[in-house]
Design goal:
148 residues, single chain, mainly alpha
Length: 148
């Protein structure tokens, strides 16, 4: 099976599994505080990235997800969202898929390194099947972790 075929299967699985709650579209009101605007922007970018993955537009997905990661790291981390929260895991899972699908598995591998949020999420009992499939695909394509 080719990487693109596996990627298409993973994208369909990811699209069905992401618990996204996008806030109402449109410009934020002047009274909205910065954290609310950051969350709205993050959710919008995460949704765009997920939609691009599902549409097979992997470079666009990677761009949107990298932008969402910047918003998370700079504006949300520790304030309105925690590392390892469902939205953070959805972002990292999407990034791992996007990197894999644009033929940059070397950038996806650190997302599943020991002790990272994705590693911890994949190690718990009852871990989401979609995450386990993504991790297994990464391990097989990397070669050195194929027996995990």
């Amino acid at each position: 099976m080719s990487t693109r075929t596996i990627g298409s299967i993973l994208v369909l699985v990811l699209g069905a599994s992401l618990p996204l709650r996008v806030l109402a579209a449109g410009p934020a009101s002047p009274q909205a505080d910065e954290s609310t605007r950051a969350r709205e922007l993050f959710n919008s970018l995460l949704q765009q990235g997920t939609n691009a993955l599902a549409a097979g537009e992997y470079n666009a997905a990677l761009d949107a997800l990298l932008d969402a990661r910047q918003i998370f790291d700079r504006k949300m981390r520790g304030k309105t969202a925690q590392v390892g929260s469902p939205e953070h895991l959805a972002l990292l899972h999407g990034l791992a898929l996007a990197y894999q699908l644009v033929d940059k598995p070397d950038k996806a591998a650190p997302l599943f390194a020991n002790g990272t949020p994705l590693d911890r999420a994949a190690s718990v009992k009852g871990a989401p099947r979609q995450l386990l499939v993504t991790r297994a695909t990464m391990d097989v394509t990397q070669g050195y972790l194929a027996m995990r």
